[in-house]
Amino acid sequence: MKIVGIAGSNVGSKTRTAMDLTLKMAREKYPDAEITLLDLAEYNLVFSDGRNYTDYEGDTKLVTETIMGADALIIGTPTFQASIPATLKNIFDLLPVNAFRDKVVSVLVTAGTSKHYLMAEQQLKPILSYMKAHIVPTYVFIEEKDFNRKEIINDDIHFRLERLVEDTVLLVDTYARIREQKDAEYDF
Asked: What residues does the NADPH-dependent FMN reductase-like domain cover (predicted)?
């Protein structure tokens, strides 16, 4: 199983902190999984211009092909102006409309205030749904008060991140079994 974590911003540290913890939990619980972190701050990505993702070069090609090869994505995003950052939106624009077909996508959101807790529901989930993702229904929302010195100090967040990882892997396994059963119905 290939799990790709995306830290969806090129600024700040909270989303990266949350992604590091989440992927650490995933590696401990599922040591056989191939787990990759794409921190968008570490790549030089071009803006989408409508080309097929395979026609890009350099970091843009590496990032898009890594995402397309994943079985599951864990997307971490900060909240900027009550929405997702442009860096993350550009990733979605670089990919084909069916990029997430047969992929499980889970979400964690960081924000400075609780006022933005619906951003994932109103901004991110509709994009993921349009791109045909199997979305883990619950997401983890992490506020400024849950961090101290680049660490998540709220135990409830730790439990919710563990559950997010478990739900992600469970859904990948479940959808794989469903596809196998459907494929077995065909006798050619």
From this structure: 1-144
